[in-house]
Specification:
By secondary structure, the chain is of the alpha/beta class. The chain has a domain of about 100 residues: Cupredoxins -  blue copper proteins (Immunoglobulin-like, Sandwich), CATH 2.60.40. Helix content is about 30%, strand content about 20%. It contains three helices and eight strands. The protein has a five-stranded mixed sheet with strand order 2-8-7-4-5. It binds copper (II) ion. The site of copper (II) ion (CU) has 5 residues, from loops. One of its GO terms (cellular component) is plasma membrane. This is Plastocyanin-like.
C-alpha cells in the first residue's frame, strides 16, 4: 500500500560534501519507493548514481546518471539498494558516497519469504469445481425427476394394460 512520500535532505544541514559519513546519516532511516533524496552542494561536486561495485571501489566515469546542478533531487523508484557517489576524483574516497536501501511495499513487514515453503500442491483443484457444481444440481433437479416419474407411470400403465387385456 502506498504511503506518503518523504523528502530526505542528504546530510541534513551539512549537505553533500566531503568528510562526511553518510552511512551514519542513513542509519535509522527507512526509505520507500517514491521517497526523494535531495542533495544540496556547492560547486565542484556531482551526484552520480553508480553500480554497487563502482560504489565500493569509488570508480568514476561509469555513472548511470549524473548531475552537477547543486540541488539534485532523485526519486527512489525501485526497491533495492541505490548507490551514489561524487564523480570528482578523490571525493568519493573522502566520504562522498551514499548507499540507500529501498524496501518494497510488502518487504517492510519482513515476512516476504515465509509464504513460499507452505504452499500445498493438490488442494488448488478443489476450489474451482465448487461453483459449477451448484448450478448443475439446480438445472438437473427438475429434469432428472420428471423422466423417472414418466418412466414409472409408463411402467404402471403398461402393467395395467397387461393385466386388463385378457
Ligand atoms: Cu565532490
Amino acid at each position: 500500500m502506498p504511503s506518503l512520500a518523504t523528502d530526505y535532505t542528504v546530510g541534513d544541514s551539512t549537505g553533500w560534501t566531503t568528510n562526511m559519513d553518510y552511512s551514519t546519516w542513513t542509519s535509522g532511516k527507512t526509505f520507500a519507493v517514491g521517497d526523494t533524496l535531495v542533495f544540496n552542494y556547492g560547486g565542484g561536486h556531482t551526484v552520480d548514481e553508480v553500480s554497487a561495485s563502482d560504489y565500493s571501489s569509488c570508480a568514476v566515469g561509469n555513472s548511470l546518471t549524473t548531475d552537477s546542478s547543486g540541488a539534485t533531487s532523485i526519486t527512489l523508484k525501485t526497491p533495492g539498494t541505490h548507490y551514489f557517489i561524487c564523480g570528482v576524483p578523490g571525493h568519493c574516497g573522502n566520504g562522498m558516497k551514499l548507499a540507500v536501501t529501498v524496501g518494497g511495499g510488502g518487504a517492510a513487514a519482513g515476512g516476504g519469504t515465509a509464504t513460499t515453503p507452505t504452499t500445498p500442491t493438490g488442494t488448488s483443484t478443489n476450489t474451482p469445481t465448487t461453483t459449477p457444481r451448484t448450478t448443475i444440481n439446480n438445472n438437473s433437479s427438475s429434469s432428472t425427476i420428471s423422466p423417472s416419474i414418466t418412466m414409472l407411470l409408463i411402467t404402471l400403465v403398461m402393467a395395467l394394460f397387461m393385466f386388463s387385456l385378457p
